[in-house]
Design goal:
The chain has one domain (about 1-219): Alpha-Beta Barrel (TIM Barrel). It contains eleven helices and nine strands. It has helices at about 1-10, 25-35, 50-65, 80-90, 100-110, 120-130, 140-145, 145-155, 170-175, 190-195, 200-219; strands at about 15-20, 40-45, 70-75, 95, 115, 120, 135-140, 160-165, 180-185. The protein is globular and about 45 Å long. The two termini are about 25 Å apart.
Length: about 220
């Protein structure tokens, strides 16, 4: 099952990052993204507060109940092992962190969740992969730029990577051409100005711009 999900990530290419969205907006937002072709969504934990942990896990549970296996839901900004436990109990399928923490990677493996820690340098990337991570989140990829992604990929092309940070409709094709498995996209799809207006059709249109590029490259 885990291998099948990894294949699906590689096929779909896009994981959307949902941060700072109101509870009542979550399901309509997920439906809007789904209509635009998105099949993977990351619901982030709040690193500054304890109580939102339970809320994020509950939102994962509701999303899984709503979509079943048609949309894959994971958690992000995972900084504590307890968050992995809460997410796993809620049905989350993957956990994404901004950093490398062997304890969190191990916890993900214990719960049969896909582990996607964040790393930037070759040493961090290799360390995370050796610790059992499934995919490495190259973050922040936009700070270093496309040449850096290519340079890192050259000797480490055996390690699955996602590029996260600054991915846009304009550069998506170039980013994917570096050989990364996929990308993480936040504000390019999850536009808070559109959410504030209830413009979910606008969210769908944005999502479709990205997924159309993936479809075109796949063809």
């Amino acid at each position: 099952m885990k291998n099948a999900l990894l294949d699906k990530i590689r096929e779909e290419k896009i994981i959307t990052i949902i941060r700072g969205v109101k509870e009542e907006q979550m399901l309509p937002l997920l439906h809007a993204m789904y209509d635009g072709g998105i099949r993977f969504a990351e619901l982030t934990f709040d690193p500054l507060e304890e109580t939102p942990n339970a809320l994020t896990a509950d939102l994962v549970r509701r999303a899984k109940k709503e979509f079943g296996d048609s949309m894959h839901i994971g958690v992000g900004t995972v900084l504590r092992a307890r968050q992995v436990e809460l997410a796993a109990a809620a049905g989350a399928e993957f956990a994404i962190s901004p950093n490398v923490d062997a304890r969190i990677i191990t916890q993900c493996r214990m719960h049969d969740m896909i582990s996607i820690p964040g790393a930037l340098t070759p040493t961090e990337i290799v360390t995370a992969y050796a610790a059992g991570a499934d995919i490495i989140k190259l973050f922040p990829s936009d700070t270093m730029g496309i040449p850096y992604i290519k340079a890192v990929r050259a000797p480490l092309r055996h390690i699955p990577m996602l590029a996260v940070g600054g991915v846009s409709v304009e550069n998506l094709r170039e980013v994917l051409s570096t050989g990364v498995w996929g990308v993480g996209i936040g504000s390019g799809v999850v536009r808070h100005d559109l959410l504030a207006k209830g413009d979910y059709a606008g969210i769908t249109a944005l999502a479709k711009q990205y997924t159309d590029i993936v479809k075109d490259m796949r063809a």
